[in-house]
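User: Predict the structure for this protein chain, please.
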Amino acid sequence: MTMTKMTAGEDPLLGLAEAGYAAALRELSDPDPWSSHRAVAQLSGHLAVMRRAVLPAARRWLHHDRALPATCLAQGRQIEWALRLLECRLSGEACATRMSFPAMVTLLEQRLSQYRSTERALLAALRDRMPGREHDRLAERCRALLPGAPTRPHPRSPRGRVPAALAFRFLGGWDRVLDELDSRPGPRPVQP
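Assistant: Here is the predicted structure, written as C-alpha cells:
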C-alpha cells in the first residue's frame, strides 16, 4: 500500500490529535497559571490514550515496522518527563525551580515538535494499513478514552498490555481525585 497524504479533516485520528495539540499550545501561551495546568492535563491525556489504544493497534497492524511505534513510545516518554518537570514547577517544588518557566515550555515544545512528526507518520501508516471501518473505530475508541485519561504525566507507568490498561484506569481516576483536592482544572473538551 502506498502512503497517502491526509489532512486532519479527512483523518479522524489525526484530527483528534491535532485538535488536542492546538488546545494545549493555546493553553501554554495563555499567561493564566491555570492554563498551564490545563495544558499538562491535555497532553498527559493524549499521551495516555496513544499508549492505551493507538500503539497496540500499531503493533498489530504495522508488524512489518516495529521501529515507528517504538520511536513514538520513546519520544512520548520524553514528553512525559518534560511535562512532569513543568508540573513540579507549577506546584512550586524546589527541584524544578532551577529552570525557568519559559525554558521548560521551550523544552516541552521542542520535544513535542519531534514527537508530533513521528506521531503523524504513525497515524498515516495506520490509516494506510487499517480498513476504514477499523480506523474509524479506533478514532472513536480514542475519543471515548479521553474523558477518563490521566490528567497528570506518568512517565513510569507500565507499558505492557494488561498492566497498562489497569494503570490507565487507576491513574485516570486517581488524578481526578487529586485534581479535586488541589482544585486544579482539567482539560477542556476538544472537538476535532
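Confidence is low (pLDDT under 50) at residues 1-6.
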